[in-house]
Design a protein that fits this description.
Elements: H1 3-12, H2 21-29, H3 33-48, H4 53-56, H5 59-69, H6 75-99, H7 107-126
């Protein structure tokens, strides 16, 4: 990895769970197979450690990475992260069912998803 990709790779080992949003945006924009593979490894490891995608609202970021990676890497390489989505979807469905009974709006998560999508859209328009 060179330059920004190398720095992002090191930061993946250091940035705490609740501070990864900006790092994920940088990783998404950088085009480095080594960085992508490190992200795949990290997502899989975090999932094995019991990481709850919905709690940190990183599910959307992972979905965007998977959509990008499906065109770049064999399915077998992505199987672990795709399983995280499937596992999280079951968890999210249970949370949605519970949310019906408690009117709590997750405005912060919605704003994060919108910012991430807006940044991806801006990058696409600039290319």
């Amino acid at each position: 990895m060179k330059g920004g990709a190398a720095l992002a790779g090191r930061l993946l080992d250091q940035v705490p769970e609740d501070g990864r949003d900006g790092l994920f945006l940088a990783c998404y924009r950088l085009q480095s197979e080594k960085l992508d593979r490190k992200l795949i490894e990290k997502f899989t490891k975090w999932g094995e450690e019991g990481w709850c995608l919905g709690a940190t609202d990183e599910l959307y970021a992972l979905e965007q990475f998977i959509a990008k990676w499906l065109g770049l890497y064999p399915f077998e390489d992505l199987e672990g992260v795709i399983r995280l989505i499937a596992r999280s979807s079951g968890h999210e469905a249970r949370q949605s069912e519970q949310a019906i009974h408690r009117p709590k709006h997750k405005a912060k998560g919605v704003r994060r998803r919108r910012r991430f999508q807006a940044e991806i859209d801006r990058q696409g328009a600039g290319q």
